[in-house]
């Protein structure tokens, strides 16, 4: 994404706490979001889960991009993001931390893969932005073997 890659998202109430999200550019499928019970009906993910999905997606895509640029072709990339909810000094709920575990299938963890492991997080726009306020830890495993850890 370049510096001039501004974007727009429209969020419109459907009913109670359920909202419809529309993305630009036009033609992308929308998304229903909702708060879990008892506040909402749980008709879709809530904002905290969307944030976790954005972090996981950004890191996965960034790692995959680096691996492919390095002429490595993994069989698949899967991320699991665990969010921790805490209360701040005023007693308000906040996302206290995100822990991302990335599993790469079919990847030899040689010199090129290790170089990507050292670089990819810095190119993830979302994670770098979120880290300014929320601790994010990242681990990367290839076929069950841990080969990268970072974060606070």
CATH architecture group name of the largest domain: 2-Layer Sandwich
> What about the largest sheet?
4 strands, mixed
Shape: globular
Order of helices and strands: EEEHEEHHEE
CATH topology of the largest domain: GMP Synthetase, Chain A, domain 3
Percent of residues in helices comes to 25-40%
Number of helices: 3
The quaternary structure here is single chain
Number of strands: 7
Structure write-up:
It is a single chain. By secondary structure, the protein is α+β, with helices and mostly antiparallel strands. It has 2 domains: about 1-45; about 45-150, GMP Synthetase, Chain A, domain 3. Helices cover about 25% and strands about 35% of the residues. The chain is built from 3 helices and 7 strands. It has helices spanning about 45-70, 110-120, 125-130, and strands at about 10-15, 20-25, 30-35, 75-85, 95-105, 135-140, 145-150. Strands 4-5-6-7 form a 4-stranded mixed sheet, covered by helices on one side. Strands 1-2-3 form a 3-stranded antiparallel sheet, with no helix packed on it. A hairpin with a 7-residue loop joins strand 2 (about 20-25) and strand 3. About 20% of the residues are buried.
